[in-house]
TrEMBL record:
Keywords carried by this UniProt record: ATP-binding, Nodulation, Nucleotide-binding, Transport
InterPro entries: AAA+_ATPase, ABC_transporter-like_ATP-bd, ABC_transporter_ATP-binding, P-loop_NTPase
Protein name (record): ATP-binding cassette domain-containing protein
SUPFAM superfamilies associated with the record: P-loop containing nucleoside triphosphate hydrolases (SSF52540)
Family the UniProt entry places it in: Belongs to the ABC transporter superfamily.
Transmembrane segments: none
Keyword Lipid metabolism: no
Species of origin: Thermomonas brevis
Length: 251
């Protein structure tokens, strides 16, 4: 379970405009085990910055993050062991094959060769990676790179999974496969959080949606709760009302 409380992050102004950018402002939500939680918001809303604070890459100016009850600021090492992260920059190692990328992360987590091999086989099957598992990742398509980065993030079998725009740039079939994979993670009782700027993406998968606009939580709840709160029977209309624009409605 991941709990975010009162998170705030400001970046100094750069270039001519020295006005600081308030990227995240008092963001709070709870992502439960056995559920998929979606952070939904238009470009620049603060999703990536929020996720970076959840996965220990950035410290919040105010507020705190608890992962399975452990304060991220107090024990980041322990938190990292229980997290699997797909960052916005996928960053797979080009000279290594997909399998070697996964293997390397397994070794960093202190796993043994047999354990890594078994886990790689399971993930490669679930993500349909067998065709390209032993190819060097240089020249991989976006979908192949994303799958490699997801498998690598999950090699140590983490309880909590954070994915930054996992379906960005993927074709329809790959997206469908990935949705099935995320549902399997949920069925295994894991806590899954992902960000997206596409309403349909979030509506198709999420048990709870946190709508973020201009660094703040505009609304949060189940799809039904969001519809009820806005008085809009259609989630798409509810989303437009909540963020005040039609950005992100079209896949
Ligand atoms: N390192 C940084 N330095 C300065 N400004 C930043 C930095 N990182 C993010 N920002 C700003 O903070 C705001 C939120 O950015 P963030 O990347 O979190 O949004 P996002 O919701 O993930 O957007 P997108 O969907 O476009 O990826 C934006 O205005 C962005 O320009």
């Amino acid at each position: 379970m991941i709990v975010a409380e009162n998170l705030r992050k400001t970046f100094p102004g750069r270039g001519k405009d020295k006005t600081p950018v308030i990227a995240v402002d008092d963001v709070g939500f709870t992502a439960r085990d056995g559920e998929i939680t979606g952070l939904l918001g238009p470009n620049g809303a603060g999703k990536t910055t929020t996720l970076r604070m959840l996965y220990t890459l950035m410290s919040p100016e105010t507020g705190r993050v608890l992962v399975d009850g452990v304060d991220v600021a107090a024990d980041p090492e322990r938190v990292r062991r229980s997290l699997g992260v797909l960052p916005d920059a996928r960053g797979v190692y080009k000279r290594l094959t997909a399998r070697e990328n996964i293997d390397y992360f397994g070794q960093l987590h202190g796993m043994g060769a047999q354990e890594i091999a078994a886990r790689t086989a399971k993930l490669a099957a679930a993500l349909q990676m067998e065709d390209f598992l032993d190819r060097a990742t240089e020249g991989f398509s976006q979908g192949q790179r994303t799958k490699t980065a997801i498998a690598r993030a999950l090699v140590h079998d983490p309880r909590n999974v954070i994915l930054d725009e996992p379906t960005n740039g993927l074709d329809v079939m790959t997206t469908r496969g990935l949705r099935g994979f995320l549902k399997d993670l949920r069925a295994e009782g894991r806590c899954v959080i992902f960000s997206s700027h596409i309403m349909q993406e979030v509506a198709a998968l999420c048990d709870r949606i946190v709508v973020i606009a201009q660094g703040r939580v505009a609304a949060q709840g189940t799809p039904d709760e969001l519809r009820a709160a806005t008085g809009e029977p259609n989630l798409e209309d509810a989303f437009v009302k909540l963020i005040g624009s039609e950005e992100g409605l079209h896949a």
